[in-house]
Amino acid sequence: MTKGFDCSTPLTAPTASAFVKDGYSFVARYLVPSGFKALTKAEADTISQAGLHIVSVFETTASRALDGRNAGLADGATALQVAHNLSQPAGSCIYFAVDFDASSAQMPAVIAYIQAASEATPEYTTGVYGSFSVMEAVQKAGACSHFWQTYAWSGGEKSTFINIYQYFNEVVEHGIDIDHDESYGNEGWWNTVVPPEPPISYPLSPGDANLIIPFLSAGYFATNSPAAREEFHRLANELRKASGQPEQ
Length: 248
Hints:
Blueprint: E1 2-6, H1 13-21, E2 26-30, H2 41-50, E3 53-58, H3 68-86, E4 93-97, H4 107-120, E5 125-130, H5 132-141, E6 146-150, E7 164-173, E8 176-183, H6 206-222, H7 226-242
Parallel strand pairs: 1-2, 2-3, 3-4, 4-5, 5-6, 6-7
Antiparallel strand pairs: 1-8, 7-8
Helix pairs in contact: 1-2, 3-4, 4-5, 6-7
């Protein structure tokens, strides 16, 4: 389980660092084109450099999903453009919010919205934020692959397959209003810090390789067969490569 939060207030470097010191690993921020709550490239870099992962959530109005398929296609196209502007890496997730107490009669529109948003964002995986009922209906329909449930409107029920769970709302920490979340893996989060290339690790040390190579050399000089000599030479070079040494 991983500790996180979501907020509509942009994070500064000191605020992001303060949350990291408190043990938070991710923050959910709004992937919208404009407005006070919009995540910017500068903020994404600030969050990433502080050591937090970013969960992208798209929400303009709470009940936007009721507008169904056409709204999903339009919002997906907008989310795609914003994700590109933020350098959100392909393969990470965009969650689309269903931020109200959706009834069973409204679920077909919600499902159509999420399916269309997924179609419009092929470079990214698609998630849904919402209540227990939304999780269950959208997952059953196969409309997306990632699930962020809120305890709100859920009646104490919790889906078994979710990636993120919002379990408490409207807390003030480090001077801003946040909601508390926890995650369980495969969140689809991202950041803009490109990890350094890992150092090359050779499976064999030069010392051990050089202890073995003389035995191959002895076999090389003990035979008059060109094919056998070629094989001894090949094996010696394989040992050199495996230990990071130049071939001979």
